[in-house]
Amino acid sequence: MSVLPDLHLHYVQTCQNLSQPENPFIARVLQEADKNDEISTKGITLKLAGNNHLVPVPRVTDDDLGVLVSVLGQAAFVTGLDLAYNLLTDAGAKTLATFLQENSTVRYLNLMFNDIGTSGAELIAGALHSNQSLVHLRMTGNKIGNQGGMFFASMLKNNSTLEKLDLGDCDVGLQCLTATAIALTQNKSLKAINLNRPLLSSQQEESTVHIARMLRSNSSLVELHLGKHEMKSFGVEQLCEALYGNSSLKYLDLSCNNIICDGVKFLGKLLKKNQTLEILDLNANRIEDDGAIYLSEALSTWNRSLQVLSVVSNNITGKGLLALAHAIQSNMKLSHIYIWGNKFDKSTRVVFSELIGMGRLEQGCTDVAPYEVDGEVFLAEMSHGLGKHRYWAPRCATVAPNAANASLAILPVSEY
Does the keyword Repeat apply (predicted)? Predict the structure, then answer.
């Protein structure tokens, strides 16, 4: 998918205050783009994000949005709209809802970190009951609350077009998670969902039980994010029991939970039988050496599907890291591993330096890089990971996109 040329983007960003009834600059940019055969054929994503740190830009407001969508109504080649980090409220959501009901070309809509609340969520979700073009929606960081999340859960029962939905950091609760899990037992189109950081008052892990139950019958979900769910060994056991019979889920994100080695024991048993999972993210848990050894045993001998493992910041010492290094040597399918934030000893530094030096572990496929001081090997942190740019993207690329966002390269759920 092509993007706006720099000149066009400059016009758009410098004219974001669309308070006039008609904006000739925006219209002119889109008219020029429409004359480009390649753009007209492939479509463009109009990027109006308000978090450009290098070039300060006015942020889009609710009043601006009305003018913008009126212009976009004549621009069928605009297939993506990035309005992240702006000042849109429920009033702007009403404008967008009307736009989504009438528009049949926009496939990607990014509304992350605006000020849309519960009533705005109801309007947008309501529009998606009939919309048949939107493939990817990001609501990340809008405080829609539990009731707002319920509207999206209801929408999932009817919508058969949406492939990727991001409700992370939206303050949803147990009721929303339960309703979403129930909806996904019927929905056959959604491929990826982000449910990170709900607000849960109970420690009983009821939400994980409902999600696990959904995974037993769902055959379309490929990517599932369950970060910051306060998940413990019981929740991991429930998920693993469900995934024995699941043949669709390839990306499981369990980062920032309360998973210890006892929970990883269930994951190790799962990996011995499951040949579907390709990416497992255990970042910021506490699996320690025993957990790392459970994983390495499964990966060394049994599993030949997992490509990516992240154990960043898991209190693993040299013993566990050496076991994972052995798994890499034994399992040629395992191509990416992220280990920064653990306790490296001399043996760990040497073995990972050797894996990188001999080419078994490519530099872009891990988050450490070896260097020497006075003949001794050390490891430095690299800006590589599964989704380093989930919330923002640097304007000056210091790392190749495939290294900083490996999950998008390995497992693209949709074109966006």
Answer: yes
